[in-house]
Amino acid sequence: MAEEKKIEIIQTEDGSHSLFLPDMDETYHSSHGAIQESRHVFIKHGLDDWAAQHHADTINILEIGFGTGLNALLAYEWAHQHKKNVVFYTLEAYPLKEEITTQLNYPAQMGQEDFDAPFQQMHQCSWGTLHQLSPYFSIYKIHDKLETVSFPAVNCQLVFFDAFAPSKQEEMWALPLLEKVTDQLVNGGALSTYCAKGQLKRDLKSLGLTVESLPGPPGKFQMVRASKA
Ligand SMILES: C[S@@+](CC[C@H](N)C(=O)[O-])C[C@H]1O[C@@H](n2cnc3c(N)ncnc32)[C@H](O)[C@@H]1O
C-alpha cells in the first residue's frame, strides 16, 4: 500500500459513511452498513458478549486498524451506556487526513450529535500517549505497522481485528501476526473479526484459541470470535 492513497467517502446502506480505496478496490466497511456491521461484530459479539460473562470495571481493548475511528466511537458509546471504563488501544499504519475525518457522519448517524467533539478529539489527539476523553473512555493510538509494532505492555480483554480483507491484504492475517495480536489477550479474553475464512479459523485454533463461527452482519454469512481459555 502506498503512503499517499486516493480515498473516496461513500455512503453505505444504513446511511453511515465508509471509505473506498480505488487503488486497492477495497472499502473500510461493508457496503450494507458501516455502523450496522461494526455494532454487530465488535459491540454485540465483542463488548456485549464479553461483559455478559465477566465482571470488570475496566476493559482494555486492542484494535487493529483505527481507520475512520468508528469502532472507537462505538466503544465510547458503550462505555457511557454501561458506565464502565474502556481503555481503547488502537493501531494504525496510515492515519487519515483531517479533511476526511471531519466529514464522517458517525455521531449524527448514531443519533449522538454530542459525540462529535470526542470523535474529532479521537482523531486529533497525539499518538503514543494515553488521552482520557471522558470519565469512562481513554484512547491510546499507536502509529505503526502490525509487522513492526511492539505493543505496550497491556493485558487486553478484547481484540477488535479490523484489517482489510485477506483477499486484499493477506499479510495482515499471517499466523505470526495473529500470534503477536492474540498474545495481548488475557485468559478469558476474546478476538472478534468480520472474517470467517477457514484458514483464519484453523490458524486461531492452532494458537490454542477456542473458535466460534457466529452469524455475520447483514450481507455476511458468518463472523469469528476466538477466545483464550
Ligand atoms: C478495514 S480498515 C479499518 C477499519 C476501521 N476499524 C474503521 O472502522 O474505519 C483497515 C485499516 O488497517 C490499516 N492498515 C493497513 N495496513 C496496516 C498495517 N500494516 N498495520 C496497521 N494498520 C494497517 C488501514 O490503513 C485501515 O485503516
Write a concise synopsis of the structure shown.
With 229 residues, this protein is an alpha/beta fold. The chain has one domain (34-227): Rossmann fold (3-Layer(aba) Sandwich). The chain contains 7 helices and 11 strands.
Q: What attributes characterize this protein structure?
A:
229 residues; alpha/beta; Rossmann fold; 8-stranded mixed sheet; 3-stranded antiparallel sheet; 7 helices; 11 strands; globular; binds S-adenosylmethionine; MnmC-like methyltransferase domain-containing protein; tRNA_MNMC2; MnmC-like_methylTransf; SAM-dependent_MTases_sf
One letter per element, helices H and strands E, the order comes to: EEEHEHEHHHEEEHEHEE
Count the domains. Answer: 1
Please identify which CATH superfamily we are dealing with. Answer: Vaccinia Virus protein VP39
Q: How many whole angstroms does the radius of gyration measure?
A: 16 Å
Structural class: alpha/beta
| Bound ligands | S-adenosylmethionine
Total number of strands: 11
> What CATH architecture would you give?
3-Layer(aba) Sandwich
What would the principal axes of the Cα set say about the shape? globular
Distance between the termini: 36 Å
Q: Please, what is the average pLDDT?
A: 97
Strand order of the largest sheet: 6-7-5-4-8-9-11-10
Name of the top-level CATH class: Alpha Beta
**Major sheet characteristics:** 8 strands, mixed
Percent strand: 25-35%
* Helix content percent band: 25-40%
